[in-house]
Every structure is written in structure tokens, then in C-alpha cells.
Amino acid sequence: MAISLKVNGASRPVTAEPDTPLLYVLRNDLELNGAKFGCGLAQCGACTVLVDGKSVRSCVTAIGSIGDAQVTTIEGLGTIDKPHALQRAFIDEQAAQCGYCISGMIMSAKALLDANPRPSEQDVRAGLAGNLCRCGTHNRIIAAVLRAAKETGRT
Amino acid sequence: MNASLSRREFAAGLGAIVVAFSLAPRVASAQEPPRLPGSLQTNRRLDAWLRINSDGTATVFTGKVELGQGILTALRQIAAEELDLPLDRIAMISGDTSRTPNEGQTAGSQSVENSGTALRMAGTEARAILLDLAAKRLGVAAEALSVADGVISAPDGRKVGYGELAAEADLKREATAKVAPKPAASHRIVGKSIPRFDIPAKVTGGAAYVQDIRLPGMVHGRVVRPPRYGATLESVDEAAAKAVPGVIAVVRDGSFLGVVAEREEQAIKARTALAGSAKWKGGPELPDPARIHEHIKSLQSKDDVIGVKQAPVPAGARTLEATYTKPYLAHASIGPSAALAEFKDGKLTVWTHSQGVFPLRAELVQALKMQPGDVRCVHTEGSGCYGHNGADDVALDAALLARGVPGRPVRLQWMRDDEFAWEPYGAAMVMQAKASLGADGRIADWQYELWSNTHSTRPQSTKGTNVLAAWYLAQPQHIGPPQGLPQPAGGGDRNAIPLYDFPSQRVLHHFIAEMPLRVSALRTLGAYANVFAIESFMDELAAAAGADPFAFRLAHMKDPRARAVIEAVARKAGWKEGEKGDGTRGRGIGFAKYKNLACYIAVVAEVEVDRASGTLRCPRAYAAIDAGLIINPDGLISQTEGGIVQSASWTLKEQVRFDKNGITSRDWASYPILTMVEAPKVEVELINRPNERPLGAGEGSQGPAVAAIANAFAHATGKRIRDLPMNPERVKAALG
């Protein structure tokens, strides 16, 4: 059936069943690469996006449940030429190895910084506790979020 | 038999003729091409590695692939350095059976050593060829010319660019390796922390992974695996799956079962329907997990003695013994394995994150009974793999599904439980150490045994077929008998020979062919377990000798590069000799020279024990690493940090769970890994040795890190845990 989603500020009509997880619509219908399939079980955070500013696991969020809410993916934060402060900070800290978890990390970090613009290191760790990384990039991810917080606070 | 007769010639049945000819030395030497450095030895032509384009750019080819370790950035630095070209005028092409050199697997921390060396030598030789051409064109001696950013200048100011010489530059020739590469002192790009070229796309939603490829007409696949190893499919209700909207085909070949649908969620629904109706039978029971190490020791083994040194043990020496174990570990990639396959006009193309596109192609050819010329494998990144995970298996799965819907590309990503239950694990191991400690406090004799399965069932590592689905086809193919990997790098016995100076020692490797669980290469192979055992036992011996672990190691170590990393990490961590743990906090040290061939690294870990809950944490770790000439300092730090955090996860939390009916670790709840809250803060010190050759470093830190954590626990509590993982159950048992 036809459903209209608000994604990164635009209205996007899609034809899919209402029980379809948002993740597949984002990736396949809207061709947005950022959110990743990691587990399909809301355990790893690789698929994290924001719905009305709150971080959700798009792998278990049915499109039929979203209604008029605004969906924000990492593509909605910034671009390779005009990156968001978080994206800039992840590049500056070289905070990715394979990078598969990183879009989810950044989206969880976005939700964290929106709620708490001056987080401590412990706040960052707790805020990203639901996002798994396997390469061991944890130190750099934490440093990148703290750097983004600092740089956002300055401007 | 004449010594110059090679095995290959003899095997080809030309023995008698060659013997006759080989009496003439000139002919004999012509038959043996000179040994070339790195991967030039197996891919000898310059144009296999690089091409100079008419626009002044270079295209660089490597058989090694990006796995998230930053290798394509490091190799680009090496090529740019030797060619004297800016980094942004170099395009990298990697891992494509139709375009790049065959460099086997990207594994074992060997890419800089093998591919990097080839590119260094090929780059410098290509630059010399361009200089010669410029010299002729400008009428100046080549020695008088200078090069900057791909432009060659004569002393009088005349210039010629690489692009203008591209058409004349003959790289279609065998490398000579006779041109000396730049001395380290002249390096401008090598040795710099060049930011990785792949990261900007990865943090902005750019297409970076095989999962991100979308071809016209592409459809989605999923597979249904048996409930346990070796079970066969008796029946399945295909009609019910075909009734799921969007389903295009159910593909069944023997006990291989999969589905193709227009949309991804439809394929997942159909998979659920198929799995629900599938009836499976048979498959062997798995051993009792509580007794898995005894079970492994009880299996038939092939025994090898290595690293023997003999000297009499002094009278009055004390003998200590200890046994250590390591469980099965999963690669546990965050993204399950994926591939995209297309069958068109009898030809197969597979986009894959395999670590070796050429070995994978050989397996696909075998499994699908095709010709090598009809199969192309193209590397595209996936989630990090850390060794042989499901990457190769899913490529065959995708190919089988694509064969069922010719003309339509099929993208397939395994579900979480496919990956956990079917990936080949890092093998469970038992390590038994026994040493004699002389009255002088020195180790007089060291005896060490280990029991392990193979650490590689990778594609092309045995004579059989090493991709999962091939074993389940109606006409099944089988995995070949597993082989041990030879010393000095070793497999299960990797790093089993201690680097310390013991007057007398013996290492016995019990290679177990029978594999109760599917196993293959996991980062470091046996080194993680062997370094855990050796370095734990060193601390036990130090304690028995009343010595500080740091001083005890130095007292047994002559190698100056080993001493340097041990001393550097102790300094960095503020190590105080003789310091006591306080019951809940402690610190420990671990050291290894990876593979006894690659980087030197020492790690100090600090731990905190919650005695009530049994939770052991490692909040902080330090490392000092010497990887010879450093190509990219920040890349080396990143790999070392990552290795330590991953090792902390293996050490504190991880083991593959199973029962007699099959694997029970099927998601992140049943296979927990270290979270952001638990990850240690890591500080890395680099020791650069610009005049030494670069040494592999991606897998250096895991062994020293586990040992440092184990030793830190013992330092904190006075108790020792010898069985991994050091989870709360084990911690509480150790504390009694």
C-alpha cells in the first residue's frame, strides 16, 4: 500500500506493507545507505535513526507506526562536502575502522547531544551503550562525540 | 640428481631431459627466474601493479583488500611516495579477479609486507623508467633531473609531466627490483598520518559496502540453514513460501534452501515461512560444552615438536605446571555477511567482501562446476571480518540463488543467526606449560604443549571444497582434510615458541584434525591463546621466583627490540616494580613479537574487580609497539587500540555457546561483546624504526592484551584465572 513518510525534511511516498521495518524502506526504496542491517533484533544499534528527534531502531520500527513523525537519517545531518559537526568530528578523529556501526553511533550521539549538549565522557559511554562496535574503535568514537560537543558549544 | 632440477620440472615428467640440459649452467639459470621482493615474486609484471595515465594520474592495482584496517590508504601512500605523485592523483583498484594481481588472502598482517613491498619496488622502477624517458626527451642525464608531483624538471627549468610520457612508458615488462627505493630520510608521504580515504563516505551515508550496491532489476535473497551441522532437509512446504507476496523463486538443491523475492522484507518473511515448515533430520550431536577441552584432548592428534633447545636442568630446580584454555570465539561481525551475484549469459559476477577474491573464485568454480573464465569476483567492502567469517559462504549462497533467477542480480545478506550459528569459529584450545626454575631465579627449562584444531579452512586451504553450501547440495562436495599451517608463522602453534632466552625448551603441537565445531582463521590464529598461556605462566614463574614481572621478563630477554617495547610500556604505564595489588585493583603486563616474525608489542592493562558480582573490568590499557618502518602512524595506533579493545572483549566476555543439538549463540544476547561503557581507554606509544622493514601489525596486540588482563587480575587478587573468558562465574570461582 502507499504510505507517505517524512524523511530528512521531505515527503517521500513509498509502496510497502505497513508492517515493513523502516530500515528496508530507507535502504531499498529511498536508497539511503546510512542505516545498516546488523541484527534485526534491536540489539546492536547499526540501524539507528531519529524519529521526531528520538533514537529508534529502524529494524524493528514498522513504517505504519510512524505516521507524520519526522524521520532523520545520517544523510539528513550533513554531506561529504558540508558535514555536520558530528560527522566532521568522526573524520577528524578517524573514528571508524570498518565503519559499519558508525552511522548508528552518530545518530545515537545526535540524540544524546540534543538532550545533553555538554556530556561527560561517562555520559557519552552511557548514551552509546546500546550501539555495538566490533573493530574496537570505542576510544575514537567517544573522543569524536566529545569533540563535536565542544565544537558545537563554541559556535 | 642435479641440484638445479626443480620439483615442478620433475613433476611435469621432463626429468630426464632437464637433467641433460641442466649440465649447461646458462640454461639452468634461465629456468629459474630471480626472486623478487614481496608479491612481485608471484605477480612479476610492472603493469600488473600500476599504470601511468595520459592525464598524469596513476592507477594502482593490489590484490589486497580493505577490511576496515586502512590498508588501501597505506598502500596508496607507498605508491605515491615512490612515484612522487600527490595522493589524490592515484586511484586504487583492489581485489578484482579480472583486474588485479592475485595476492591470495588479505590476512595475517601481511599486506604492507607483501603488497606494500611490491608497490614500493614497482613504483620506484616505474619512476626510473619515466625519468629515463624524460632524460632522452630533454637531452639531460637522468641523474640531473628532479621530480615533484609527477612533473620532471631539468636543471634549466624545462619540464615534462608523467602524463606526456605515459604512452611511451613501457611497463609491460617484468620487474627487475634493481632500482633502490627512496631512503626513509627522503619520505614525505610514508610515515605521515594521512587520513583514510574511505572514512568521509562512511560517516555521511555514501555507498561504501556491498550492502549498498543496487543494480537495475535487483532482487533480494535469504537462505534457510539447518538447525545443526550436517542435518539434511527431508521436506519443506515450498508452496507456502511461494504464496508470500513478492516471492519470485524458492531455490532448493539437496539441503540447500533459499528464497528470492522482489523486496527484502518479503524475502525475510518467506524465509520464516520456509524455516517453519522445513523438516530436517540427522546431523551429529555436538560434544558436552562443559567438557569440550577434555574432549579435544581426547581426539586423535598429529604431533609436531618445535622450538627445541637442550641443556641440562640444574639440580635443585623447582618445577611449576599450569593448564590454560581458550573457548571457541566468533568473529561476530556487526553486519552479517552479504554478497551480490548476477548470472547472465552463462557468466557469473559476484560482489563480495571476501578476504581473497581469487581463492573464492576457485571455490565457486568448483562448487558450481563452472570455468574460471566465466566467474568474476569483485571485492566490495562489508562489515569488518577479523578473519574467515561468512563472507565466502554467502557468496556461494548468493550465486546459487542467482542461478535460480538468471538475468536478475540477487543481493543476499545473512540474518543474525545465520552468521552466529554458521560462521567458522576461532578454535577452542588447551595449553599446558611446565617449567623448571633454578635457584638463581631463572627459568632453566620450559616444556609446552598445545592442543588445537586447524586455524584455516579458508577457500583453497584444503583439497576439498571450503564453502558451506557446497556440503549441502544434492550432489554434495566435501571439505578436504584440514592442514596445519607451517612454522615459523604457524597456525594453532602461532607464537607457541617463546621468544625468551631459555637454555632448554620444547614445544609440542597436537594438531587435531577432527572438528566438532566448524573452525577457521580468527585474527591472530593460535597466537591469542599461546601468548595468554606463555605470558600468564611467565608471571606465575616470576611470582615463584619472588621477582617483579617486568624485571623477570627483561632478565630472560636479549632481543633489544623486545626489551625496548617492554621498557617503553612500563614507562608509559608508570610501572612500579614490586607494587602490590589491593584486592580489587591491579595491573599486569604482556609481551609478544607477533608470529615471532612481525611487530614487537607490549601491553600493560589495569583491572578492577567487583568481588561481590564477580565483574572484572579493564578500564585502561597501554601499549608500546615497534612495527619497523611505520607507513601511517595514526593507522598503526588505530589498529593497536582496536586490537586491545577486541581482545578485552574476547577475554572478559566471549565464548560460543552450544549444546548437543547445535549452536545456541545466535544473537547478541547469547553472545555478548564489550560495550561502549566497558571499553578500556587505550594509550599507544609507537617506536618508529625507519631503517627497518615494515612489519605486520594488525594482529599484534590481542595476545599481549589478554595476558596483561590475566596478569592484572592475579596482581589485584592473588588468584589466577587460567580459563577464558574471565566472566563473573570464573572470577567468583577464582576468588572462592
Q: Can you walk through the features of this model?
A:
The complex is a heterodimer of chains A (155) and B (736). With 155 residues, chain A is of the alpha+beta class. Chain A contains five helices and five strands. Chain A has helices at residues 22-29, 85-92, 102-115, 121-127, 138-154, and strands at 2-7, 10-15, 48-51, 54-57, 70-72. A five-stranded mixed β-sheet of chain A has the order 2-1-5-3-4, with helices on both faces. The longest helix of chain A is centred in the last third of the chain and has 17 residues, at 138-154. Chain B is an alpha+beta fold. In chain B, a hairpin with a 5-residue loop joins strand 18 and strand 19 (443-452). In chain B, helix 4 packs parallel to helix 5 (111-138), helix 14 (527-545) runs parallel beside helix 18 and helix 17 (633-653) crosses helix 18 (702-717). Chain B is globular and about 80 Å long. The chains are: A alpha+beta (155), B alpha+beta (736). Chains A and B meet through helix 1, helix 2, helix 3, helix 4 and helix 5 of A and helix 7, helix 9 and helix 17 of B.
Largest sheet of chain A: 5 strands, mixed
Widest beta sheet: strand line-up of chain B: 9-10-7-17-14-15-16
Poorly predicted spans of chain B:
1-28
Mean pLDDT of chain A: 97
Q: Note the gap between the termini of chain A.
A: 45 Å
Strand order of the largest sheet of chain A: 2-1-5-3-4
Helix-residue proportion of chain A:
25-40%
**General shape of chain B:** globular
Q: Give the CA-CA distance, first to last residue of chain B.
A: 67 Å
Element pattern of chain A in H and E = EEHEEEHHHH
Approximately how much helix is present in the residues of chain B? Answer: 25-40%
Number of discrete helical segments of chain A: 5
Provide the β-strand percentage band of chain B.
15-25%
Structural class of chain A: alpha+beta
